[in-house]
Amino acid sequence: MRPIQMVDTKTQYLQIKDEVDAAIHAVLDSAAYINGKAVQDFAASLSSYLGVKHVIPCANGTDALQIAMMAIGLEPGDEVITPSFTYIATTEVVALLRLKPVFVEVDPITFCMDPASLEKAITPKTKAIVPVHLYGQAAPMEEILSIAKKHNLYVIEDNAQAIGCSYTFSDGTVKKTGTMGHIGATSFYPSKNLGAFGDGGALFTNDDTLAHTLKTIANHGQEKRYYHDIVGCNSRLDSMQAAILNIKLKHLDRYNQARANVALFYNQAFENCSAITTPKTAAYSTHVFHQYTILLDGDRDGLIAHLAEKGIPSMIYYPVPGHKQKMFASFNLPESDLTTTDHLTTRVLSLPVHTEMDLEQLTYITDAVLNFINK
Ligand SMILES: *Cc1c(COP(=O)(O)O)cnc(C)c1O
């Protein structure tokens, strides 16, 4: 049996090695390492795949979120609402820009932003909402967008974990995650569903003015070289990563299907195990299973140790929610009462899910989990 990993980027690469190597060599031959044709080609393919007007590549997902927040003209102290139950990057950029993070609750079933908690948190200082499509399924965007519209707020989607996921609105319209709010932000970190062989990220928008601002900010605030109109930063996707991503984008739907197949196997194996709550997909969303995350009613540390002994990695995403992170101590945030989030952090456990898992590995993992629980 091949060793079990949380992600297996090596085996995935070997499957498409010829295509990828040729694309890398084409970049080497062109010697256009930054902003070459490969970057423009990838942005064009991704924008057509997502059905979004503008794709602005940048250096990583955290930069994408930061650039998005810089583009909407916020003032220090303005409030940005995010779920507490997310990767730190979502809220880190809020803090970095001296904006005020306001943490809200997630739904205990989908792990995504709870619209009721969101609406309660809105104040006259609220300027933006950042829903996170956590683990690979969409946040309830229809409700979030309608709350945002009512209160005249920006919506920036953190789509780092859900590229390729689709959302169905009640009128039947289907849109890809990351393309529904004012701006979408994503990451091409190697372990993401569409992963580069290094860092990468991108911004999405259908708004021409915002697209222009995002592009300018990512390029030192300049439109004309050496004339800097606004404060920006330096955030670029390099041509080599773009060329690799353009190849991998062609396989993305197949990759996401492979992840969904893994999830289906786990779901069926754990169906009759009362100690395990398997992940549920909301009716309005597809699920691209960036993570396969169970809720365990039992000895989580014991299970993690048992699996580790058998060579099976597992992870807690995330052990400390945003509202409990020390980094926000100087922000004088009000006490948050986020019982669902606190509860989830003590119960979630993510099992390996990636595109190259085989039946032997899956059976080995589910046997190990069930043996521990039923012992
Ligand atoms: C990975 C991730 C990011 C950050 O992406 P990087 O490319 O690592 O900077 C942001 N938000 C979420 C939810 C993520 O999972």
Structure description:
The protein has 2 domains: 9-249, Aspartate Aminotransferase, domain 2; 252-373, Aspartate Aminotransferase, domain 1 (Alpha-Beta Complex). The longest helix has 32 residues, at 239-270. The strands form 4 sheets. The protein has a 7-stranded mixed sheet with strand order 1-9-8-5-4-2-3, with helices on both faces. The chain has a 3-stranded antiparallel sheet with strand order 12-13-14. The mean pLDDT is 97. It is of the alpha/beta class and 375 residues long. 40% of the residues lie in helices and 15% in strands. The protein is globular. It binds pyridoxal-5'-phosphate.
Question: Which short descriptors sum up this protein?
Answer:
single chain; 40% helix; Aspartate Aminotransferase, domain 1; three-stranded antiparallel β-sheet; 15% strand; alpha/beta; binds pyridoxal-5'-phosphate; Aspartate Aminotransferase, domain 2; 375 residues; 12 helices
Task: Give a brief outline of the structure.
The chain is α/β, with parallel strands linked by helices. It has helices at residues 9-15, 17-30, 37-50, 61-71, 89-96, 115-121, 141-150, 208-218, 239-270, 300-309, 339-347, 359-374; strands at 54-58, 79-83, 100-104, 126-129, 154-158, 166-168, 174-176, 183-187, 201-205, 222-224, 227-228, 276-277, 292-296, 348-351.
